[in-house]
Structure to design on (382 residues):
């Protein structure tokens, strides 16, 4: 549906902007917020054609979809997308707010927001701030774009504060989950199944998982790898990981599950999650796993300690001490009663991030940003 109908003054218009067509953690967050907001206000989702756009049409039929051009070259996407957003969007000045899903989305929305003098809610998912992002933020500051940053965790907030951007932060807003929608009732499998949901990026720590698997090669444990298909354009990093698996004799224990289209099914098919990342802003995978009743064993990095409660919903270990991660997984595999206790606690703790609570907080933040046009956004007043 084109976003060209006249805007009504009865309720505000929220324009959600996503720069990429694929579905990963930040895009699942956007979809969850869209489903929550669509019955409550006029919602336009500006996004390139692809998996997420199709998901919005299917799951959030009340939302209007504005298709943005997409190019593999990021700067070209930003330039063409920003032009399309400015020229195609029909909204009412003073009744519009932009919700940008990350700083790349801000580069798409900023010209239109400046034109409309509309506040920008920027959901910050990153675990680091690149020099390019700093440059763009300075540029939008000079152009007086009224943007306020909302990091997903205390860790991400610290990243912004260390970069000298603390004055732009309006508060933290975590990634949400539908806590009830993920829950499953079951017992652990035999062999015990450890799941990994990630990408080909070295930051996701597949090599660390393989090291732990090598330590537990004599245990009755399978390793289910979601999100990586080693037979489809393997990167040099994945090739190196395949060699590690072959060297350590892990081939019979590893299940390469490839691209995931059914996340609920993936979580229901394993008994625990291993998140061996080198960097994480918060980890939506950890939240979804907990909501599915999975114990989570994760590296003590980034925002993961804000999600995983030590000894309650799982355990944390230092990336340079993988033997500790192996010991936690061995305990879960050997002790079904411990697994059940952690599983139940994980489901309960996931309620802290339920969409009902996080969505209500999002609406409150929107109201704050739209409440006083003279002071909306940290950048507008400078």
């Amino acid at each position: 549906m084109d976003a060209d109908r006249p805007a009504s003054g009865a309720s505000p218009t929220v324009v959600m902007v996503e720069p990429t067509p694929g579905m990963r953690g930040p895009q699942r967050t956007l979809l969850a917020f869209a489903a929550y907001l669509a019955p409550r206000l006029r919602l336009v989702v500006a996004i390139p054609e692809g998996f997420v756009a199709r998901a919005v049409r299917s799951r959030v039929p009340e939302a209007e979809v504005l298709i943005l051009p997409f190019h593999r070259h990021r700067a070209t996407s930003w330039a063409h997308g920003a032009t399309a957003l400015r020229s195609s969007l029909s909204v009412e000045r003073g009744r519009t707010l932009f919700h940008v899903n990350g700083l790349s989305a801000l580069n798409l929305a900023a010209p239109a927001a400046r034109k409309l003098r509309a506040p920008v809610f920027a959901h910050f998912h990153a675990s680091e701030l690149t020099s390019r992002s700093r440059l763009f933020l300075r540029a939008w500051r000079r152009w007086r774009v009224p943007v306020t940053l909302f990091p997903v965790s205390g860790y991400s907030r610290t990243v912004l504060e260390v970069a000298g951007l603390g004055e732009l932060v309006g508060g933290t807003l975590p990634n949400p989950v539908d806590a009830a929608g993920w829950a499953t009732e079951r017992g652990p499998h035999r062999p015990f199944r450890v799941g990994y949901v990630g990408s080909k990026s070295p930051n996701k720590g597949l090599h660390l998982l393989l090291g732990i698997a090598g330590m537990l090669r004599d245990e009755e444990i399978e390793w289910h790898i979601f999100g990586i298909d080693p037979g489809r354009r393997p990167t040099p990093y994945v090739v190196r990981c395949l060699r590690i698996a072959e060297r350590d004799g892990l081939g019979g224990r590893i299940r390469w599950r490839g691209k995931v289209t059914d996340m609920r099914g993936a979580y229901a098919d394993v008994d625990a999650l291993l998140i061996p990342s080198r960097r994480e802003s918060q980890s939506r995978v950890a939240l979804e796993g907990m909501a599915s009743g999975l114990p989570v064993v994760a590296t003590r990095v980034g925002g993961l300690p804000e999600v995983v409660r030590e000894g309650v919903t799982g355990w944390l270990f230092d990336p340079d001490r993988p033997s500790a991660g192996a010991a936690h997984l061995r305990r879960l595999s050997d002790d079904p009663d411990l697994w059940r206790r952690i599983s139940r606690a994980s489901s309960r703790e996931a309620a802290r991030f339920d969409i009902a609570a996080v969505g209500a907080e999002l609406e409150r933040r929107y109201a704050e940003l739209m409440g006083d046009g003279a002071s909306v956004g940290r950048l507008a007043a400078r």
